[in-house]
User: What shape does this take?
Amino acid sequence: MHVSIPNGSAPPGPPQFVTNNFRPNPNLKPEEAFGWAVGARFQSADLLSRGDRFLVKGSYDHNRVENPIEHEVNILAGCFGRPFPPRVNGGTSQNVKVANATFVGFEVKILYDS
Assistant: This one.
């Protein structure tokens, strides 16, 4: 079972649940990631006044992912409506392959303390 959620649309009385079950996917290949990052940092003191501190640093990342795996949740239409059985099949959850991906990003931090 992935999740079991109380059915909020059920009439008053004992709790009734909608369940979502895991479904195996034996055809998945392992997810592989290849990446690199580069960064630089500059720091100085007494730049504008005595005792101050200035810092700037930045980095750039590049990651390529082959066989990325995503968690897919399928909810059946109407599973939260009438009738109100004690347990309702609310769909399935499964890990699935998605298209290969490339993630690129950068980060910059600037700090001035006087």
